[in-house]
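Problem 12. The chain below contains 275 residues. Write out its predicted structure in token notation.
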Amino acid sequence: MRRVALLLLVLLLPACRSDRVALTYRLAPGIRLEHRLTLDASVVRTLAGETRREEIVATFTAAQEVVGPSDQGGVEAAISLVPEGLEVNGRPVDIGPAQEFAVRLGPDGRVVAVEAATDEGTDALDPVGLERILPRLRPVLPGRPVTPGDAWRSQTEFTDEQGRFSLRTRSRLTQLGVTDGREAALVRTTYESPVQRQEVFANAVAQVTGSDVGAQEAWFALDGYLVRAVGDSVGTYRVTFTPPEEEEGLAPVRGALRVRLHLEMQLLSATGVPA
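Solution.
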């Protein structure tokens, strides 16, 4: 009888073991994360029947620091993109100073609002839309305990004085494991991001309408932060350029923009979280 009981215990142990995990971002004030952000873009512009292609490679140190609670729920955070290098068609280009963003993170840690605190940077990165890729740099988490194979969806709307865009995601917990010495979860995501925005230039105003579609693979530390992410997307847009109000009599010029984008995020340091 004792042998039978031991055999049943051995058989039941694997069934009792759970791989259910709670994936949540750490949002305590003072937490600071630094990642290396690498951006590789292939940009095709068509305007008045002429086509121009550019290959853009940019590298930043992306630093995010949680500032404190938000009156609208979640927390306020500051994100800075400190440039390390920029090449356009294989030639080095001055990338300009660091770009600062004030963002609001929802209770589940997703980016729900983005505001550019500085309006400086190089025109070479305008087709990429840095403020629009910030919500896509890390996965949206489920807000509930999940096991490998579980899936979830999310939708977030963004609106500012330049227009609007949204982010619709479908994510799945693919596996649990260890990456870079940290217990982590592999989250795979596909997304669509419709865009309707206005960009103001020195000699024209551009109305941009289209969408980005893409996929991401992200390793998320069970201690509450992104370790590594790789993503690819394709953005297709219609662009209409209109002259400034003071230049009457000039007809709008219509064109198209296509952006193939490869993004990589790699953790450099994490302050205020378990090592």
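Discussion. The domain at 22-271 is CATH 2.30.230 (Lipovitellin-phosvitin complex; beta-sheet shell regions). Students who got a different answer should revisit the alignment rule from Section 12.3.
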